[in-house]
Write a structure and sequence with these properties.
This protein is of the alpha/beta class and 313 residues long. The chain has 2 domains: 235 residues, P-loop containing nucleotide triphosphate hydrolases (Rossmann fold), CATH 3.40.50; 59 residues, Orthogonal Bundle (Histone, subunit A). Helices cover 50% and strands 8% of the residues. The chain is built from 11 helices and 6 strands. The chain has a 6-stranded parallel β-sheet, sandwiched between helices.
Length: 313
């Protein structure tokens, strides 16, 4: 039996590099679990690994959506589940890597999503467009005070979904959330993190590199492909700030600063989210022996389970 490995944690900790090392050592294939890397053409701003740096290892769930399409957790769950099971059927190890929190939960906890209703969703999306996140958050406070406390007041898409679920089910949004238990397929969950000061410095370097190496031109090119029409892609950190710059809301230096601040805030949310999961085995991204530390965990599990994969450790 082959056991998948998930490499999760905050942005800029070194997850992609570790996933490549594990895939190379364990005859694996990568399954992306970063929502924004699903989009074609969103490469620089998402730190998507270029083809030349993928070591010939197959990657799945990259470049599967146009920027005009809406990424949904439910659609990802179905597609990624099929990918993971196909990788295992080929006798390879799925190495799932990324930091999109709800996507991780959907895939590994087999989230059973409440139904959607286009008319109900359209109503709340219209409120978001007309009244902004403030009006939407006020509506959520009235409908589900607990959800209003747990969802960021700037996260319009998640507030829309929460209001849709509450209206359709008549129950609080939390009632539809999955319960943490044994991960799907018995997946080994590895978390990569670093000290806050070090991670902040890495985020600053990454943000500078994005702007210095073509993010502005990337966004301009995506405008020709319909970026403004997309409900998800145009709100991605970095892309939203560059769009605001192109709309003359602020200069490029301010767009860079807002991207840095937004990324740091997102990292704090990721850290808080993943740290609550007792199944995650945490590793120090700064450890020079990080790949071996990860392999030790994986191989110990394989040996305990009597897996063939233990022979490759």
């Amino acid at each position: 039996m082959i056991t998948p490995i998930a490499v999760v944690g905050p942005t800029a900790t070194g997850k992609s590099d570790l996933a490549l090392e594990l895939a190379q050592r364990l005859d694996g294939e990568i399954v992306n679990i970063d929502a924004m890397q699903l989009y074609r053409g969103m490469d620089i701003g998402t730190a998507k690994l270029p083809h030349a740096q993928r070591r010939g290892i197959a990657h799945h769930q990259l470049d599967v959506l146009e920027v005009t399409e809406t990424a949904t957790v439910a659609a990802y769950q179905g597609a990624a589940t099929a990918d993971v099971e196909a990788v295992m059927a080929r006798g390879h190890t799925p190495v799932i890597v990324g930091g999109s929190m709800m996507y991780v939960q959907a895939l590994l906890d087999r989230w059973d999503f409440p139904a959607t209703d286009p008319q109900v969703r359209a109503k709340w999306e219209a409120l978001l467009e007309d009244g902004g996140v403030e009006a939407l958050h006020a509506a959520l406070r009235d409908a589900d005070p607990v959800a209003a406390q747990t969802i960021l007041p700037t996260d319009g898409r998640r507030m829309v979904r929460a209001l849709e679920v509450v209206e359709l089910t008549g129950r609080p949004f939390a009632a539809s959330q999955p319960q943490v238990g044994e991960p799907h397929w018995g997946t080994i969950i590895l978390g990569v993190d670093r000290g806050t000061a070090e991670l902040d410095a890495r985020i600053e370097l990454r943000t500078a590199a994005m702007f210095d190496h073509g993010l502005l031109d990337e966004v301009r090119a995506l405008l020709d492909r319909g970026l403004r029409e997309g409900q998800t892609a145009r709100r991605a950190i970095g892309y939203a700030q560059v769009l605001a710059h192109l709309d003359n809301e602020y200069d490029l230096n301010h767009a860079r600063e807002r991207t840095l601040i937004g990324t740091r805030r997102y990292v704090r949310r990721q850290r808080s989210w993943f740290r609550r999961d007792p199944r995650v085995r945490w590793l120090d991204g700064a450890d020079p022996l990080l790949p071996q530390a990860a392999l030790d965990i994986v191989c110990s599990r394989a040996a305990d389970d009597g897996q063939e994969r233990a022979r490759q450790c």
